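Review box. Two proteins, two foldings.
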Amino acid sequence: MQPSPHTLIGAHTNVYVEAGEQVFDMNLLGQSIRIVASPTEYTFDYGDGTAYGPARVPGGPLPESRWGEQTATSHAYQSTGDFPVTVTTFFSGEYSVNGGPMVPIDGRAQVTSPAQLLSVWRSESRNVADDCLVNPAGVGC
């Protein structure tokens, strides 16, 4: 998440997942088995009762100078608090026996990430006419 572990109310928080193809090689009953699982869709649960997906877009990181921009997978929180953010990745698979052709696997698997706690804060800004030397009791002093 960007920014993390804190963000501001009303600002877009970029949430993304880094998931790649998984390859499993094993022997089963004397046969050489290869299973390939590829991520195909993602569901983003922002922890505040809203979700996005399933979507084919995993999102991606932004340079720090662009934090707060809206992305396909970002979310703008409407209240302060601590929110458990998760992403569920859906995998489709295929298998091969003894080096033969790849055969699609019916159905798909889903893996949910461990929750990442995001604290949503509010901020206040104020204009002041003098500095703390002139007015030691002023805002921000």
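Next protein.
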Amino acid sequence: MSESRTTAEFFFDPLCPWAWMTSRWMLEVEKVRPVDVSWKVMSLAVLNENRLDELPEEYREMLETKAWGPVRVVIAAQQLHGDEVVGKLYTALGTRFHNNGEGPTREAIVGALTDVGLPGDLADYADKDTYDTELRASHKEGIDKVGQDVGTPVIAVPGADGDEVAFFGPVVTPTPRGEAAARLWDGTLLVASTPGFYEIKRTRTAAPSFE
């Protein structure tokens, strides 16, 4: 009998380089463990909209000027073309934003849409609130699983006892590959499913390495 597969929900904001690193790890996990990823959006802009005054000026400016557009385009693509386009579009956006260093420009967004065969004019939704209700609902679905004191990504997966296990992260660079990806997945599930476990953390000493 083939091994039954588990669906892991992955909530991301395409702007975040650390979420991008984790998402590439999840693609590795799909290869080495019986896991299928379901891609869903969350929003750093929504997460921080009521605490902008508490944030460093540079980060606040990024949220106000760059954070809404990409995630609005992804949710518009999902609403108009189905769930199956979300992961593909995220890969195309992340490759251009992060690996290629293009950043979240309109040109990069149009290019990513074209890369996956979606209409380039979906980029117009970057400046529209047409699907903000759906965006906020998807964000709430993810953040409600872990609480407000985290960021992106959020991962949720059925645990061994059937109860959902959800967590922020892991934050890692470079992306673990092969058996290293499998070990990290197994270990993450082990600690995240431990009752009363909340946090492991250490200071980041390296920037994301987009290998």
